[in-house]
């Protein structure tokens, strides 16, 4: 079973938080519930996470998830240390590392596609 407020999908519990936090603080918040930032490794999970955050926020809020290239620029990895792999949903022209962006979010104004963002930028997030 999942912690309160979480939804199970493919055996994993997820929750979208309509609270603005940095990647670091979002990671800590997920950890308090015994989890990590969400890792949409396939199209089905990606679509589910988009519907999940739209259910908690009707605003143009962007949502962080568990992908970054903080260790090596351009080498994206999930928060569990595994490589990005073959699936991605980048917006055309992303990731662009504009201003040294090492973390990743869903960007509403980009049609919910992935966009790299400065890790200190505060967004909603998905555990």
From TrEMBL:
Transmembrane segments: none annotated. The keyword Isomerase does not apply. The keyword Nucleotide-binding does not apply. Residues 9-127 form the C-type lectin domain. InterPro entries: C-type_lectin-like (IPR001304), C-type_lectin-like/link_sf (IPR016186), CLec_Tetranectin-domain (IPR051663), CTDL_fold (IPR016187). Pfam families: Lectin_C. Keywords: Lectin. GO terms for molecular function: carbohydrate binding. PANTHER family: C-TYPE LECTIN DOMAIN FAMILY 4 MEMBER M-LIKE, TETRANECTIN-RELATED. This is C-type lectin domain-containing protein. It comes from Branchiostoma floridae (Florida lancelet).
